Amino acid sequence: MITLAVWKFASCDGCQLSLLDCEDELLAVAGQVRIAHFLEASREVLPGPYDVSLVEGSITTAADAERIRAIRDASRVLVTLGACANAGGIQALRNSADVAEYASAVYARPDYLDTLATSTPIAAHVDVDYELHGCPIDKGQLLETITALLAGRKPNLPAHSVCFDCKRRNNVCVVVAHGEPCLGPVTRAGCGAICPAFGRGCFGCFGPAETPNGPAEADLLRAHGMSGDDIRRLYRTFTVSAFAEVAGDAS
Amino acid sequence: MRSEETPRLIGADGLGALFTALRDRGYTVVGPTLRDGAVVLAELDSAGQLPSGWSADTEAGRYRSRRREDGAVFAHCAGPVSAKTFVHPPRARLWSADRNPDGSVSAAGPDAPAKRFAFVGVHPCDIAALGVLDRVLAGGEHPDPVYTARRDGTFVVVAECTEPAATCFCTSMGTGPAATAGFDIAITELLDGGHRFLARGGSPAGTEVLAALPSVPAGAEDTAAATAAVERAAAAISRHMPDEPLPALMTASRESPRWADVASRCLTCGNCTMVCPTCFCTSTEDVTDLTGQHTEHQRHWDSCFSLDFSYLHGGPVRTSTASRYRQWMSHKLGTWQEQFGMSGCVGCGRCIAWCPAGIDITEEAAALAAARLEDAP
Amino acid sequence: MNAVVPVPHRIVDRRVDTADTVTVELAPVGEALPAFRPGQFAMLTAYGIGDVPISVSGRHGARPLHTIRAVGAVTRALHDAAPGDVIGVRGPFGTAWDVASAAGHDVIVVAGGIGLAPLRPVVERVLADRSAFGRVAILAGAREPAELLYADARRQWATQAQVRTTVDRAADGWKGPVGLVTALIPGMDVDHAAAAAFVCGPEAMMWFTVQALLERGVPAARIQVSLERNMRCGLGWCGHCQLGPLLLCRDGPVVGYPVAEPLMRVREL
């Protein structure tokens, strides 16, 4: 029996929904996993410590920065879920802008807001044991991680490019056959190459692969008609901070 | 070489009869078809799914299917899927095991496939690639049961190459455009003077199937036209490997500065290895169910372009992109010879066409050869 | 039975070697595998966790012994398995030490860390037929004294051979030498020019050891090394074990130094 807790920080809840999506599979192990904290699913809250904490969202307030430390202290294994938790998410766009200006453009009473100037990944605050990438995460990777933790093995979470999976599922390459810009060659696998399977270029929601070649990817994107601004925007969609180095000034 | 028997001439509609004959004999037909803008290999139900009237234009990092008026069926090369996908599938279960209540373990080996494949319309370079896989996966001390179960008893209808792509270099590797061995039936598509196919048997099974098709003996003119078409194809091949023993070139080039150059362009995305019809490398992982009592040992295609590929306790051996590209190319053109007594490259050009960065193995080989000459005293 | 599906074996004995290393003795639950020769390796499966290559480190009757250091999830699970537990075994795979070729010669065995495990059967074979060999020197290095393997065996060997150990960091009242195992080579009482050498350890350690042996006059053709790459399938199908022209699961792990030399010279090969 392991205790599992699910925690939310600045995020859209989509990654937690992936866990709810696993209910059939999780029912099979109802005897082995006790959900101690998962507000999206149940109001029942059990006190820590927890064997496994799944953490969604980024750190955007001083209170959250405190809360994540308490969660880390109460958790044996901490797994972050998704682009927000791993890279600050879309909200990390504020990191290179004026958050006060953003707030005044969006909110009628920005003075009600109590927010940090940055949106930062969980790993910027506490040690993280495993990162599940994506926006949202892949349900298969979530189940793989939970089963691996139950079995005591290392989860199979590849760090190579999306292209490996794209070819394994026999997709026709959207770059080569259609001239479609695609971040697949520099993006971490794990989604099963969903977007190329539907004829779209990858937009990098899993963040960078293990050894992304930013300049070569920029050459590729330019060759397929993207301007420097287009390229910057593409990299900034979901994991702006994670791709910052890859994007570099090559765009 | 060409069989002694007179070739047969099959009409444009004869492919339907071929499909029927193969299906009647229990084969699952795998052939080219147009999907998502490319001619891919897939399981086909009828000859109507063949890419009639489609060609493909390729260049480094580029592939475009192109409509044509003449209804040609086999005038395309370097599609992204090769026969490897069917005989050495991207994913396979090597074994499964269940832990019994008494602590003992019951294990089962790989699933035996229910299908026997007939490959229709693959090109001579693809036949050569099957020969390479035969040697690598089935020709050693331990034949791979997943491979042999899919490969044994396959039926091969090779389509001689009459329209090579710009990325092809089979003439350098001695694998085409003519079909010389490794097939049950060889056909040559003829377009001038009426769409028809010259066909010859390459095995007793092939001769038997051929006899079941509506055909007439080929005339001397048809035979000459087929020979000419293949000769034209050979002459049209524009890419070449350096004219020197490639294993020696690769050994001499281990410290070449060219590796750093190609590394600046290489995305380490692994596409070249995935589309290569002979790249056989795999990795395995144990997958458990949530109860933990059932384990599956699964195998999937891997690539020497991943860091994990060379992982040892302490970290990966090949961390630089240069070393990973060197591993791939040196294996393909060089060390394969020492490991398996043959080249790992069949000159199909898929790695050139499907590299998003347009890296061209013939150009890299030429650069290594030129650099070696410069180094020579 | 094919070489793909692990053959269930029961752990019948488990000896603790160091804080993170154990030696297990395996007995087949049903069918037995062919005998392992010194230098060959097995793929050991911890069911539900994964499999790893582990060399044979000795035998007890017909039963193979394997020495396992817990460094990852799979080796941790194998290390933690108790007597009575069932694990899977595939093998034997790879080449063996050519001990016979050393007959009539002085013998030098040099091990770094866990590298002593695959060399233990070499030592035992040489000492079991002591008169067939000349002088015997066994050198073992480890990071710390507590990580030196097979203390009991080493004491026994010392009655018939020169046994020297060294550590990177002294501790626990260690009074022996501190430093690289290569530093022990000059002090051995052997006729280097007429000696045969068996070397196993991390790649850099093997490289410097062999250079030291060559310097003292040990002929390159009589030096054997055990090389390592990422052995995954054990069968030569998966490609991970490549070192240049070698498939180490098939052509190694044990190779003559003349074969290894040009390959060990190339970084990231």
Automatic annotation (TrEMBL), chain A:
One of its GO terms (molecular function) is oxidoreductase activity. Transmembrane segments: none annotated. Keywords: Oxidoreductase. The keyword Oxidoreductase applies. InterPro entries: Hydrogenase_assoc-protein, NADH_UbQ_OxRdtase-like_20kDa, NiFe_Hase_small_N_sf. Residues 12-149 form the NADH:ubiquinone oxidoreductase-like 20kDa subunit domain. It comes from the Bacteria. PANTHER family: COENZYME F420-REDUCING HYDROGENASE, GAMMA SUBUNIT, CYTOSOLIC NIFE-HYDROGENASE, DELTA SUBUNIT. This is Coenzyme F420-reducing hydrogenase, gamma subunit. It comes from Paractinoplanes atraurantiacus.
Automatic annotation (TrEMBL), chain B:
This is 4Fe-4S dicluster containing protein. Pfam families: Fer4_22 (PF17179). Gene3D superfamilies: Alpha-helical ferredoxin. One of its GO terms (molecular function) is iron-sulfur cluster binding. The keyword Mitochondrion does not apply. Transmembrane segments: none annotated. It comes from Paractinoplanes atraurantiacus. It comes from the Bacteria. Residues 255-287, 336-364 form the 4Fe-4S ferredoxin-type domain. The keyword Hydrolase does not apply. InterPro entries: 4Fe4S_Fe-S-bd, 4Fe4S_Fe_S_CS, Helical_ferredxn. Keywords: Iron, Iron-sulfur, Metal-binding.
TrEMBL record, chain C:
Transmembrane segments: none annotated. Its cofactor is [2Fe-2S] cluster. It comes from the Bacteria. One of its GO terms (molecular function) is flavin adenine dinucleotide binding. GO terms for biological process: pyrimidine nucleotide biosynthetic process. Keywords: 2Fe-2S, Iron, Iron-sulfur, Metal-binding. Residues 4-99 form the FAD-binding FR-type domain. Pfam families: DHODB_Fe-S_bind, NAD_binding_1. Signal peptide: none annotated. [2Fe-2S] cluster binds at residues 233, 238, 241, 249. Binds 1 [2Fe-2S] cluster per subunit. This is NAD(P)H-flavin reductase. It comes from Paractinoplanes atraurantiacus.
